[in-house]
Amino acid sequence: MAFDESGKIWMDGELVDWKDAKIHVLSHVVNYGTDVFEGIRAYEIDGKAQIFRLEDHVKRLFDSAKIYKMDIPFTQDEICEAIKETIKANNLTACYIRPIVYRGYKELGVSPVNCPVNVAIAVWEWGAYLGEEGMANGVNIGVSSWRKPAVSTFPNIAKAGANYMLSQLANMEAKDNGFDEGLLLDVNGNIAEGPGENVFLVLDGKIYTPTLSSSLLKGITRDSVIKLAGDLGYEVNVLPLPRDLLYIADEMFFAGTAAEVTPIRSMDHRIVGEGKRGPVTEKIQREFFKIVNGEVEDRYGWFSPVD
Ligand code: PPE
Which of 231, 238, 221, 236 lies closest to 289 in space, CA to CA? Predict the structure, then answer.
Protein backbone atom coordinates (compact mmCIF):
# COMPACT_ATOMS: atom_id res chain seq x y z
CA MET A 1 0.00 0.00 0.00
CA ALA A 2 1.56 3.31 -1.07
CA PHE A 3 -0.04 6.70 -0.68
CA ASP A 4 -0.93 8.84 -3.66
CA GLU A 5 0.09 12.08 -2.01
CA SER A 6 -1.82 14.38 -4.30
CA GLY A 7 -5.05 14.45 -2.31
CA LYS A 8 -6.54 16.39 0.57
CA ILE A 9 -6.81 15.54 4.24
CA TRP A 10 -9.46 16.99 6.54
CA MET A 11 -8.00 18.53 9.70
CA ASP A 12 -10.18 20.15 12.35
CA GLY A 13 -12.73 21.38 9.85
CA GLU A 14 -10.52 22.26 6.90
CA LEU A 15 -9.24 20.39 3.88
CA VAL A 16 -5.47 20.72 3.63
CA ASP A 17 -3.01 19.44 1.04
CA TRP A 18 -1.83 15.91 1.76
CA LYS A 19 1.76 17.00 2.41
CA ASP A 20 0.68 19.78 4.77
CA ALA A 21 -1.32 17.49 7.07
CA LYS A 22 1.23 17.70 9.88
CA ILE A 23 1.31 17.90 13.68
CA HIS A 24 3.93 18.99 16.21
CA VAL A 25 6.37 16.32 17.43
CA LEU A 26 5.53 17.24 21.04
CA SER A 27 1.83 16.52 20.55
CA HIS A 28 0.51 14.34 23.35
CA VAL A 29 -0.35 11.57 20.85
CA VAL A 30 3.25 11.25 19.67
CA ASN A 31 4.54 10.70 23.20
CA TYR A 32 1.77 8.62 24.76
CA GLY A 33 -0.25 7.16 21.89
CA THR A 34 -3.27 9.22 22.87
CA ASP A 35 -5.62 8.60 19.96
CA VAL A 36 -8.70 6.70 18.93
CA PHE A 37 -9.53 6.00 15.32
CA GLU A 38 -11.73 4.22 12.82
CA GLY A 39 -11.29 2.25 9.65
CA ILE A 40 -14.25 2.46 7.27
CA ARG A 41 -14.71 1.39 3.67
CA ALA A 42 -16.63 3.04 0.89
CA TYR A 43 -17.60 0.87 -2.07
CA GLU A 44 -18.44 1.94 -5.59
CA ILE A 45 -22.03 1.12 -6.40
CA ASP A 46 -23.53 2.42 -9.67
CA GLY A 47 -20.57 4.76 -10.11
CA LYS A 48 -21.10 6.36 -6.71
CA ALA A 49 -19.26 6.06 -3.37
CA GLN A 50 -21.41 4.26 -0.80
CA ILE A 51 -20.00 4.21 2.73
CA PHE A 52 -20.45 0.94 4.61
CA ARG A 53 -22.04 1.36 8.06
CA LEU A 54 -20.88 4.95 8.39
CA GLU A 55 -23.03 5.87 11.40
CA ASP A 56 -21.98 2.71 13.26
CA HIS A 57 -18.29 3.47 12.74
CA VAL A 58 -18.67 7.10 13.77
CA LYS A 59 -20.65 6.02 16.83
CA ARG A 60 -17.82 3.63 17.76
CA LEU A 61 -15.31 6.46 17.30
CA PHE A 62 -17.26 8.55 19.80
CA ASP A 63 -17.57 5.57 22.18
CA SER A 64 -13.79 5.00 22.03
CA ALA A 65 -13.22 8.71 22.73
CA LYS A 66 -15.65 8.59 25.64
CA ILE A 67 -13.74 5.75 27.30
CA TYR A 68 -10.62 7.97 27.20
CA LYS A 69 -12.51 11.15 28.17
CA MET A 70 -11.71 12.82 24.86
CA ASP A 71 -14.39 15.36 24.12
CA ILE A 72 -14.68 15.51 20.33
CA PRO A 73 -15.37 19.12 19.27
CA PHE A 74 -17.75 17.99 16.48
CA THR A 75 -21.03 16.10 16.45
CA GLN A 76 -21.38 12.64 14.99
CA ASP A 77 -23.36 14.14 12.09
CA GLU A 78 -20.59 16.66 11.44
CA ILE A 79 -17.99 13.88 11.30
CA CYS A 80 -20.20 11.89 8.90
CA GLU A 81 -20.49 14.96 6.66
CA ALA A 82 -16.75 15.65 6.91
CA ILE A 83 -16.03 12.08 5.78
CA LYS A 84 -18.25 12.55 2.72
CA GLU A 85 -16.63 15.91 2.00
CA THR A 86 -13.15 14.34 2.18
CA ILE A 87 -14.10 11.54 -0.24
CA LYS A 88 -15.49 14.12 -2.68
CA ALA A 89 -12.43 16.34 -2.36
CA ASN A 90 -10.25 13.37 -3.30
CA ASN A 91 -12.47 12.28 -6.22
CA LEU A 92 -12.65 8.75 -4.88
CA THR A 93 -15.42 6.17 -4.93
CA ALA A 94 -14.15 2.86 -3.51
CA CYS A 95 -11.76 3.81 -0.72
CA TYR A 96 -10.62 3.27 2.85
CA ILE A 97 -11.47 6.01 5.34
CA ARG A 98 -9.37 6.76 8.41
CA PRO A 99 -10.78 9.25 10.94
CA ILE A 100 -8.37 9.92 13.83
CA VAL A 101 -9.14 11.70 17.10
CA TYR A 102 -5.98 12.61 18.97
CA ARG A 103 -4.62 14.74 21.80
CA GLY A 104 -2.61 17.50 20.24
CA TYR A 105 0.02 20.04 21.17
CA LYS A 106 -0.04 22.06 24.36
CA GLU A 107 2.01 20.45 27.14
CA LEU A 108 3.50 17.10 28.07
CA GLY A 109 3.08 14.86 31.08
CA VAL A 110 0.84 11.81 31.37
CA SER A 111 -2.30 13.82 32.09
CA PRO A 112 -3.91 14.57 28.73
CA VAL A 113 -6.66 16.84 29.97
CA ASN A 114 -5.13 20.19 28.98
CA CYS A 115 -4.18 19.08 25.48
CA PRO A 116 -6.61 19.83 22.65
CA VAL A 117 -8.66 17.06 21.04
CA ASN A 118 -7.95 17.25 17.31
CA VAL A 119 -9.62 15.38 14.48
CA ALA A 120 -8.28 14.35 11.08
CA ILE A 121 -9.81 12.32 8.25
CA ALA A 122 -7.80 10.74 5.45
CA VAL A 123 -9.01 8.56 2.58
CA TRP A 124 -7.08 6.37 0.16
CA GLU A 125 -7.47 3.36 -2.08
CA TRP A 126 -6.76 0.09 -0.28
CA GLY A 127 -7.20 -3.31 -1.93
CA ALA A 128 -7.40 -6.75 -0.30
CA TYR A 129 -5.72 -6.41 3.15
CA LEU A 130 -4.28 -9.92 3.18
CA GLY A 131 -3.84 -10.10 -0.59
CA GLU A 132 -6.08 -11.25 -3.47
CA GLU A 133 -4.64 -14.75 -3.23
CA GLY A 134 -5.53 -14.91 0.48
CA MET A 135 -9.04 -13.67 -0.26
CA ALA A 136 -9.61 -16.53 -2.73
CA ASN A 137 -7.64 -19.40 -1.22
CA GLY A 138 -7.13 -18.51 2.41
CA VAL A 139 -4.26 -17.29 4.58
CA ASN A 140 -1.83 -19.11 6.85
CA ILE A 141 -2.12 -18.12 10.49
CA GLY A 142 -0.05 -18.69 13.62
CA VAL A 143 -1.10 -18.19 17.24
CA SER A 144 0.87 -15.37 18.80
CA SER A 145 3.03 -15.79 21.88
CA TRP A 146 1.59 -12.45 23.02
CA ARG A 147 -1.79 -12.30 24.79
CA LYS A 148 -4.50 -9.68 24.63
CA PRO A 149 -4.63 -7.69 27.87
CA ALA A 150 -7.10 -8.97 30.46
CA VAL A 151 -10.37 -7.03 30.42
CA SER A 152 -9.43 -5.56 33.78
CA THR A 153 -6.16 -4.06 32.55
CA PHE A 154 -6.76 -2.11 29.34
CA PRO A 155 -9.87 -1.37 27.31
CA ASN A 156 -10.02 -3.59 24.24
CA ILE A 157 -13.38 -2.24 23.12
CA ALA A 158 -11.91 1.23 22.50
CA LYS A 159 -10.25 1.37 19.10
CA ALA A 160 -7.22 3.23 20.43
CA GLY A 161 -3.93 3.67 18.62
CA ALA A 162 -1.99 2.34 21.61
CA ASN A 163 -3.74 -1.06 21.31
CA TYR A 164 -2.00 -1.46 17.99
CA MET A 165 1.46 -1.70 19.55
CA LEU A 166 0.37 -5.20 20.58
CA SER A 167 -1.11 -5.84 17.13
CA GLN A 168 2.25 -4.89 15.64
CA LEU A 169 4.10 -7.38 17.85
CA ALA A 170 1.69 -10.15 16.90
CA ASN A 171 1.78 -9.30 13.19
CA MET A 172 5.58 -9.03 13.03
CA GLU A 173 6.04 -12.26 14.97
CA ALA A 174 3.67 -14.07 12.61
CA LYS A 175 5.50 -12.77 9.53
CA ASP A 176 8.90 -13.66 11.04
CA ASN A 177 7.59 -17.18 11.51
CA GLY A 178 6.45 -17.39 7.89
CA PHE A 179 2.71 -16.91 8.50
CA ASP A 180 0.53 -14.34 6.73
CA GLU A 181 -1.01 -13.10 9.97
CA GLY A 182 -1.15 -13.82 13.71
CA LEU A 183 -3.98 -14.69 16.06
CA LEU A 184 -4.08 -13.54 19.67
CA LEU A 185 -5.51 -15.42 22.64
CA ASP A 186 -6.95 -13.71 25.70
CA VAL A 187 -5.36 -13.89 29.12
CA ASN A 188 -7.14 -17.20 29.84
CA GLY A 189 -5.96 -18.80 26.62
CA ASN A 190 -9.29 -18.45 24.86
CA ILE A 191 -9.40 -17.21 21.28
CA ALA A 192 -9.53 -13.41 21.03
CA GLU A 193 -8.87 -11.94 17.57
CA GLY A 194 -6.32 -11.17 14.88
CA PRO A 195 -4.10 -8.06 15.09
CA GLY A 196 -6.61 -6.23 12.88
CA GLU A 197 -9.44 -8.72 12.36
CA ASN A 198 -12.12 -10.63 14.24
CA VAL A 199 -12.20 -14.38 13.77
CA PHE A 200 -14.95 -16.91 13.03
CA LEU A 201 -14.87 -20.72 13.21
CA VAL A 202 -17.16 -23.25 11.54
CA LEU A 203 -17.68 -26.58 13.33
CA ASP A 204 -20.24 -29.17 12.26
CA GLY A 205 -22.10 -26.59 10.20
CA LYS A 206 -22.42 -24.10 13.06
CA ILE A 207 -20.60 -20.80 13.31
CA TYR A 208 -18.69 -19.60 16.37
CA THR A 209 -17.02 -16.32 17.25
CA PRO A 210 -15.46 -15.24 20.57
CA THR A 211 -17.40 -13.13 23.03
CA LEU A 212 -16.49 -9.54 23.99
CA SER A 213 -15.13 -10.63 27.38
CA SER A 214 -12.28 -12.33 25.47
CA SER A 215 -10.61 -8.91 25.03
CA LEU A 216 -11.59 -8.05 21.48
CA LEU A 217 -12.79 -5.19 19.38
CA LYS A 218 -16.55 -5.14 18.81
CA GLY A 219 -16.07 -5.37 15.08
CA ILE A 220 -18.63 -3.93 12.75
CA THR A 221 -17.83 -6.53 10.09
CA ARG A 222 -18.19 -9.15 12.84
CA ASP A 223 -21.67 -7.80 13.50
CA SER A 224 -22.46 -7.77 9.76
CA VAL A 225 -21.28 -11.39 9.40
CA ILE A 226 -23.38 -12.48 12.39
CA LYS A 227 -26.45 -10.92 10.72
CA LEU A 228 -25.69 -12.30 7.25
CA ALA A 229 -24.91 -15.79 8.55
CA GLY A 230 -28.11 -15.82 10.60
CA ASP A 231 -30.14 -14.80 7.56
CA LEU A 232 -28.45 -17.53 5.53
CA GLY A 233 -29.83 -19.98 8.11
CA TYR A 234 -26.69 -20.67 10.12
CA GLU A 235 -26.64 -20.90 13.88
CA VAL A 236 -24.12 -18.35 15.16
CA ASN A 237 -22.72 -18.84 18.67
CA VAL A 238 -20.92 -16.03 20.50
CA LEU A 239 -19.00 -17.73 23.31
CA PRO A 240 -15.63 -18.02 25.03
CA LEU A 241 -13.76 -20.37 22.69
CA PRO A 242 -10.78 -22.46 23.84
CA ARG A 243 -7.67 -22.44 21.67
CA ASP A 244 -8.04 -26.16 20.86
CA LEU A 245 -11.02 -25.42 18.65
CA LEU A 246 -8.62 -23.72 16.23
CA TYR A 247 -7.17 -27.13 15.42
CA ILE A 248 -10.40 -29.00 14.88
CA ALA A 249 -12.51 -26.35 13.15
CA ASP A 250 -13.76 -27.34 9.69
CA GLU A 251 -13.38 -23.77 8.47
CA MET A 252 -12.17 -20.45 9.76
CA PHE A 253 -12.18 -16.91 8.49
CA PHE A 254 -11.23 -13.38 9.45
CA ALA A 255 -13.68 -10.47 9.33
CA GLY A 256 -12.77 -6.81 9.40
CA THR A 257 -13.14 -3.59 7.48
CA ALA A 258 -9.74 -3.87 5.85
CA ALA A 259 -9.72 -7.70 5.70
CA GLU A 260 -13.42 -7.92 4.68
CA VAL A 261 -14.09 -11.70 4.76
CA THR A 262 -10.78 -13.59 4.37
CA PRO A 263 -10.65 -17.40 4.62
CA ILE A 264 -8.01 -19.09 6.80
CA ARG A 265 -6.39 -22.14 5.19
CA SER A 266 -4.00 -23.19 7.95
CA MET A 267 -3.53 -22.61 11.66
CA ASP A 268 -0.20 -23.27 13.39
CA HIS A 269 0.90 -25.52 10.51
CA ARG A 270 -2.28 -27.56 10.65
CA ILE A 271 -4.45 -27.53 7.56
CA VAL A 272 -7.95 -26.21 8.19
CA GLY A 273 -10.55 -28.44 6.49
CA GLU A 274 -9.42 -29.02 2.92
CA GLY A 275 -6.78 -26.29 3.09
CA LYS A 276 -8.79 -23.85 1.02
CA ARG A 277 -11.83 -21.64 1.37
CA GLY A 278 -14.56 -23.85 2.85
CA PRO A 279 -18.19 -23.95 1.66
CA VAL A 280 -19.72 -22.01 4.58
CA THR A 281 -17.01 -19.35 4.38
CA GLU A 282 -17.59 -19.10 0.65
CA LYS A 283 -21.33 -18.57 1.09
CA ILE A 284 -20.81 -15.83 3.66
CA GLN A 285 -18.02 -14.22 1.68
CA ARG A 286 -20.13 -14.28 -1.49
CA GLU A 287 -23.12 -12.76 0.31
CA PHE A 288 -20.91 -10.07 1.85
CA PHE A 289 -19.43 -9.11 -1.52
CA LYS A 290 -22.85 -9.19 -3.24
CA ILE A 291 -23.98 -6.57 -0.74
CA VAL A 292 -20.90 -4.35 -0.84
CA ASN A 293 -20.72 -4.55 -4.64
CA GLY A 294 -24.37 -3.57 -4.88
CA GLU A 295 -25.39 -6.80 -6.63
CA VAL A 296 -28.29 -7.18 -4.22
CA GLU A 297 -30.34 -4.48 -2.56
CA ASP A 298 -29.12 -2.90 0.65
CA ARG A 299 -31.65 -4.81 2.75
CA TYR A 300 -30.04 -3.85 6.06
CA GLY A 301 -29.70 -0.14 5.28
CA TRP A 302 -25.94 -0.38 5.65
CA PHE A 303 -24.94 2.24 3.07
CA SER A 304 -24.66 6.02 3.16
CA PRO A 305 -24.25 7.58 -0.30
CA VAL A 306 -21.73 10.29 -1.08
CA ASP A 307 -23.74 12.60 -3.34
N1 PPE B 1 -10.10 -6.39 15.67
C2 PPE B 1 -9.10 -5.49 15.54
C3 PPE B 1 -7.99 -5.52 16.51
C4 PPE B 1 -9.14 -4.57 14.49
O5 PPE B 1 -8.17 -3.69 14.36
C6 PPE B 1 -10.21 -4.59 13.57
C7 PPE B 1 -10.27 -3.62 12.45
C8 PPE B 1 -11.23 -5.55 13.76
C9 PPE B 1 -11.15 -6.41 14.83
C10 PPE B 1 -12.44 -5.58 12.87
O11 PPE B 1 -13.31 -4.50 13.16
P12 PPE B 1 -14.23 -3.83 12.04
O13 PPE B 1 -13.33 -3.13 11.10
O14 PPE B 1 -15.13 -2.92 12.81
O15 PPE B 1 -14.97 -4.92 11.39
N16 PPE B 1 -9.02 -3.21 11.98
C17 PPE B 1 -8.91 -2.00 11.20
C18 PPE B 1 -7.48 -1.56 11.05
C19 PPE B 1 -6.59 -2.34 10.18
C20 PPE B 1 -5.26 -1.68 10.01
O21 PPE B 1 -4.31 -2.37 9.59
O22 PPE B 1 -5.14 -0.48 10.25
C23 PPE B 1 -9.63 -2.13 9.87
O24 PPE B 1 -9.91 -3.23 9.43
O25 PPE B 1 -9.95 -1.10 9.31
Answer: 221
Q: What is the pLDDT of residue 156?
A: 94
7: which residues sit within 8 A by CB, 6+ positions away? 18, 89, 90, 92, 123, 124
159: annotated active-site residue: yes
Q: What does the pLDDT read at residue 141?
A: 98
* Coil, helix or strand at residue 187: coil
- Could you say which of 159, 175, 218, 227 is catalytic? 159
Tally Cβ neighbours within 10 Å of residue 140. Answer: 20
Q: Output the residue whose Cα is nearest ligand 1's atom 5.
A: 196
* Secondary structure (DSSP) of 16-72: EEGGG----TTSHHHHH--EEE--EEEEEETTEEEEETHHHHHHHHHHHHHHTT---
Condensed to tens digits (0 to 9), the pLDDT of residues 160-183 reads: 999 999 999 999 999 999 999 999
Residues 21 and 124 sit within 8 Å (Cβ to Cβ): no
Residue 217 neighbours by CB under 8 Å, 6+ apart: 156, 157, 159, 193, 198
- Beta bridge pairs of residue 49: 44
From 157, 175, 185, 198, the mutation candidate for ligand 1 (largest count of ligand atoms within 8 A of CB) is 198
Is the CB of 39 inside a 6 Å radius of any atom of ligand 1?
yes
241 in Cβ contact with 185 (< 8 Å) = no
**Secondary structure class of 14 (helix, strand, coil):** strand
Question: Cβ neighbours of residue 205 under 8 Å, at least 6 residues apart?
Answer: 234, 280
Sequence-distant (≥ 6) Cβ neighbours of residue 183 within 8 angstroms: 141, 142, 143, 144, 170, 191, 192, 193, 194, 199, 246, 267
Q: Residue 127: its pLDDT value, please?
A: 86
Q: Is 99 left (phi over 0), alpha (psi -120 to 50) or beta?
A: beta
